[in-house]
Design a protein that fits this description.
Pfam families: Phage_holin_4_2 (PF04020). By secondary structure, the chain is mainly alpha-helical. The chain is built from six helices and two strands; from the N terminus they run αβααααβα. The radius of gyration is 14 Å and the shape is globular. It starts with a helix and ends with a helix.
Length: 115
């Protein structure tokens, strides 16, 4: 339980780094980052697998690159759902999702993968 809370807080901190590197993403504080990290986790666990299966032919034809488009769209959806998080345009969401994925992977390396 403590590891899950630590991972959530570190992912929110990683989300706070994204606006520093990508101008089209803005987060007003750590509270909205915590909520956004939670929603991103839920969307990635519940909706992303369904979207991957539904778009499997396109994903296979693009050699998996379409999964990056799905990540960007889910990042954009998160910004629409959370007050205090804004993304200006699809490409901002795309690059924000890509950077957040890298940072989240680093968090998993530090904390350890969930079982």
């Amino acid at each position: 339980m403590l590891t899950m809370l630590l991972r959530w807080a570190l992912n929110a901190a990683a989300l706070m780094v994204v606006p520093a590197l990508i101008d089209s993403v803005s987060i007003s504080g750590f509270g909205p980052a915590l909520i956004a990290a939670l929603i991103i986790g839920l969307l990635n666990a519940l909706i992303r697998p369904l979207l991957i299966v539904l778009t499997l032919p396109v994903t296979v034809l693009s050699l998996g690159l379409f999964a990056l488009i799905i990540n960007g769209l889910l990042f954009w959806l998160t910004a629409e759902l959370v007050e205090g998080v804004s993304v200006h345009g699809f490409w901002g969401a795309f690059w924000g999702a890509l950077l957040y994925s890298i940072l989240s992977s680093l968090v998993d390396l530090v904390v350890g993968k969930p079982r």
